[in-house]
Design brief:
The chain has 252 residues and is mainly β. Helix content is 7%, strand content 31%. The protein has a six-stranded antiparallel sheet. A six-stranded antiparallel barrel has the order 11-12-13-16-15-14. The longest helix is centred in the N-terminal third of the chain and has 14 residues.
């Protein structure tokens, strides 16, 4: 039997304000940061990654189905590297789905050298040096989705631009604006049944292979997409405070 989630939401208002809206380098963007305030050790991070690798094909569907499934159309535009002028455009087969619209992001600025990207929730991501050039033609109208890293990647996440087809390896270096219009945080947790309720009222069922034992109410969350093979959980929830993610689906 699934027990109901806590009904009381606790909100913590923070006054985290970015000092500037113009990005010159990724170092210029970082302010007071709660990112990784309870981060796992490198040993624990490697343990989690190895567990996911061995469990990738063992995941079975349990519990309620997702509340909704939103397909994401991939429309690749071949653009000039800096000017952004479209040279060629093609639409390919839908490759991703999400159970929550919060997994669809947009860039609001890219640093002059391409080493940092800021999304609409004001989160900031540092880019792998070999991927700098891939970000210089990004537009604010582009759709960005956040994916888990590759098995052997030295970076924590991937930003995928569905309009250009560019995949860049990134690390999260600045949390979203707390209480921002595009930000999410935990309102309640049911540890027994592994359910998480966000501030927008959405309720998430977490993969049986992941756990939220060290998650707390008011932890900030970024919603991404799980592109793992055979997965019945279309999303990932990135906990900013631990800088780790779990797989799950929005069920309400």
């Amino acid at each position: 039997m699934k027990k109901s989630l806590f009904s009381t939401s606790v909100f913590c208002i923070c006054s985290l304000i970015l000092a500037s809206t113009q990005l010159f380098g990724v170092e210029d963007l970082q302010e007071e940061n709660i990112l990784g305030s309870r981060k796992h050790s490198e040993e624990r991070k490697m343990e989690l990654r190895n567990q996911r690798m061995t469990q990738a094909q063992e995941e079975e569907e349990t519990g309620e189905p997702p509340a909704q499934i939103i397909p994401i159309t991939i429309s690749h535009e071949q653009r000039e590297p800096v000017s952004g002028e479209v040279v060629k455009k093609s639409t390919v087969e839908q490759e991703f789905v999400t159970s929550h619209s919060g997994a669809i992001h947009h860039p609001i600025f890219v640093t002059a050298f391409g080493d940092g990207v800021q999304l609409e929730d004001e989160s900031i991501w540092s880019v792998r040096p070999s991927d700098y050039m891939k970000t210089l033609n990004w537009l604010i109208t582009d759709t960005i989705i956040i994916l888990p890293p590759g098995w052997f990647s030295g970076y924590d996440y991937v930003l995928f631009n569905t309009d250009t087809g560019a995949r860049i390896n990134v690390n999260l270096v600045q949390q979203p604006r707390y209480n921002g219009i595009y930000s999410h945080w935990i309102a309640a947790i049911d540890y027994l049944n592994e359910r998480v309720c966000l501030e927008d009222g959405s309720i998430w069922s977490i993969s049986a292979f992941d756990d939220v034992d060290d998650w707390l109410v008011n932890d900030m969350i970024i919603i991404g997409i799980n592109d793992g093979w055979f997965s019945v959980n279309p999303n990932i929830l990135i906990n900013v405070n631990t800088n780790e993610y779990v797989r799950g689906k929005c069920i309400y």
